[in-house]
Protein: SAM-dependent methyltransferase
Amino acid sequence: MSDNDPQLGSAADVRARIDTSKPHSARFWNYFVGGKDHYEKDRELGDHIKEIFPGLVDVARTSRLFLGRAVRHLATERGVRQFLDIGTGLPTADNTHEVAQRAAPDARIVYVDNDPLVLAHARALLTSTPEGETAYIDANLYEPEAILREAAKTLDLSQPVALIILNTLGHVADHKEARDLVARLMSGLASGSYLVISDSTATSEGMIAASNEYNKSGAIPYHVREVEEIAAFFEGLELVEPGVTQVTRWRPEAEDQTAVDAYGAVGRKP
Structure:
């Protein structure tokens, strides 16, 4: 793809949208998982948060591992071949399409994000096996119907799709609104589709303090929720065992199962 691919916009237009004067969640998270796509304000906030609550680094790292396990499980054991990843974040190792296509080369993946730096790096997300396909949509979570319309250009929405929303719903302040957005997205997906969610939770004083400091930084606020509120996103769905649990304890492989302030689950649409 060229630097002026119409699907992604011109490189100059994208760069003009990047604001480095305040932290941004995608860049902040990228710093915590050991990426290279962050700026001074993101690193300053990250270092400050680590002093308050070092455990947030573990949340970032283990949430990424949860994503890999969930995608592998869906591709290898549930036969899912289509993935819609909203709130993609910056490319790192083992992105959704890499995990999915490693297990199923014919898998199709659509990424959705509206951060200009993510958009600037979207070309790294648009690699694919010859049998599969990847696409990127520049949109935000508050546009579920628009997301589904665009996703339908790559995915067959009459067939099961795995909807992935990781560490993103916390940006929606009102829990009822967040549930409504998830419900509207799932309503456009076929029976047999799956919902994959993980988010930071208000399960320790350290996490709550870290969230409060983050929200003072000028970045778009992120609201940690109770575990029961995470579970509510899956109402009406059939939970895949072990249900709603700490991300380190959802079908663990060889990774550390240390307790973390992040819960996730996978649910199937009947």
